[in-house]
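Changelog-adjacent note: as of this version, every example in the card shows the full chain rather than a window. The one below runs 124 residues end to end.
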Amino acid sequence: MPQITGAQAKLQEKITAAKKTETELQEVRSARPSKIKIAQMPDDKRYNKLKHESKIFMNIIKMICYRAETSVANLIAEMLSIRDNHQEKRMIVKQVITSAADIIPDEKNNTLSVVIHALVSQAI
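Full-length structure tokens:
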């Protein structure tokens, strides 16, 4: 019995110390603001803007995507009743890109069919 009581007392001391530590940490956490400005961050952990090269690379990717979207819009416009309205062509392409679709491979004919689910535009 004395051995069990001694072990229980040691465990109780550890539990009490852990609860005290928890309380102290909660007080430290509650003293800190939940949001700070970037200028208030330490220099070694401060958020850095994109490097100039990274920004140029991102702009190149955006231009490539824009040109691809424009090319697809012009191809689609030939098949639809919209030839002059540039914004409408682009909106249709954006709908096609973001809409759900079924991909159906045909190995015999070496084709891949894409069935796009219903779109909002009336031109399609």
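Structural remarks: Residues 2-45 form one domain.
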